[in-house]
TrEMBL record:
Family membership: Belongs to the NAD-dependent glycerol-3-phosphate dehydrogenase family.
Alphabetically ordered keywords of this record: Cytoplasm, Lipid biosynthesis, Lipid metabolism, NAD, NADP, Nucleotide-binding, Oxidoreductase, Phospholipid biosynthesis, Phospholipid metabolism, Signal
The name this protein goes by in its record: Glycerol-3-phosphate dehydrogenase [NAD(P)+]
Binding site for NADPH: 13-14, 34, 108, 142, 257, 281, 283
């Protein structure tokens, strides 16, 4: 029986993890990367050691630097590029994507400058109906997915048929997939939770305890909801996997890049040094800048985001930022969920 073909753009940690899921579902998967040595390693050794030191990839997974070879004939194209590179990758892939291919993205962030969500960027570059595009999100560390540990995510699309296609493509006995029509809510939640995870790393790095962490997650969820609702999202989305689920896993785990970056910032390391040490994209940094602008655009108060913006880009002391958060004026909790 001829296997279905899928393309994964690019070969980072999350792209590799989802490639393993697709391979388990009888897809022949081609990962695309600009890095020739990484591609050669995947093809010859069946490893991707930059991201996983002890993982042997399925023989159904290969790699190439040739975009046409990666994408042509693929029934499913998964975009897992960082937000800053999404438009360029989509533009490069667009001429080779079959008209009937299912296009899914797994990127949690906004486009720098335009502040557009990733489905908007893809729709513009692929010249396609945004209703047919799918986003996959939820509490899902790549390190656990490749080990086939139980994981549950959500796929969101305005077109239910597209969402169900993605559900069928990704669901396995260890990787459970729900559908959701709220693309805006799922994308906003996935992006903004990275900001709160930076804050959680700062909190832990400063030696604060569980009380502070619980407050940060709860008030962070209020900020996510407030912005999402202003942008047209369904409030119920933020109580689900893409909202509170992803927030909890990203703010409490050693696997979280954003948490680790926040912890290093709390040690007094400059942002540039933190990013250099990480060696991987930390989406929460760019997202903090984007969310700071979106808060102004939609007239939404986001105090945690505002203080992290000051820490990241204006040199404010993390401890002073916490003090300023704690010293905010009194308000009513329920009103404050959806209002300034």
């Amino acid at each position: 029986m001829t296997k279905r073909k899928a393309a994964v753009l690019v070969a980072g940690s999350w792209g590799t993890a989802l490639a393993t899921v697709l391979a388990d579902n009888e897809y022949e998967v081609t990962m695309w990367s600009r890095n020739e040595s990484q591609v050669e390693e995947i093809k010859v050794n069946h490893t991707n050691s930059k991201f996983f030191t002890d993982l042997t990839l399925s023989s159904a997974i290969t790699a190439t630097t040739d975009m046409e070879a990666a994408v042509s004939g693929a029934e499913l194209v998964l975009f897992a590029a960082p937000s800053i590179a999404m438009r360029q990758v989509a533009r490069q892939a667009a001429p080779y994507i079959d008209q009937e291919a299912l296009c899914v993205h797994a990127t949690k962030g906004f486009e720098t400058g335009s502040l557009k969500r990733m489905t908007t960027v893809l729709a513009e570059e692929l010249k396609t109906d945004p209703k047919k595009l799918v986003v996959i999100s939820g509490p899902s560390h790549a390190e656990e997915v490749v080990k086939r540990q139980p994981t549950t995510v959500v796929v969101a699309a305005a077109c239910q048929q597209a969402a169900e296609q993605a559900q069928d493509a990704f669901i396995t006995p260890f990787f459970r997939v729900y559908t959701n029509p709220d693309v805006t809510g799922v994308e906003v939640a996935g992006a903004i939770k990275n900001i709160i995870a930076l804050g959680a790393g700062l909190s832990d790095g400063l030696g604060f305890g569980d009380n502070a962490k619980a407050a940060l997650l709860t008030r962070g969820l209020a900020e996510i909801s407030r912005l999402g609702i202003a942008m047209g999202a369904n409030p119920l989305t933020f109580a689900g996997l893409a909202g509170v689920g992803d927030l909890v896993v990203t703010c409490t785990s050693k696997h979280s890049r954003n948490w680790r970056a926040g912890a290093m910032l709390a040690e007094g390391l400059p942002l540039d040094d933190v990013l250099e040490r990480m060696g991987m994209v930390v989406e929460g940094v760019r997202t903090t800048s984007a969310a700071h602008e979106l808060a102004v655009t939609y007239d939404v108060v986001m105090p945690i985001t505002e203080q992290l913006f000051h820490v990241l880009f204006e040199g404010k002391s993390p401890r002073t930022a916490v003090e300023d958060l704690m010293g905010r004026g009194r308000t009513h909790e329920m009103e404050d969920i959806v209002a300034p």
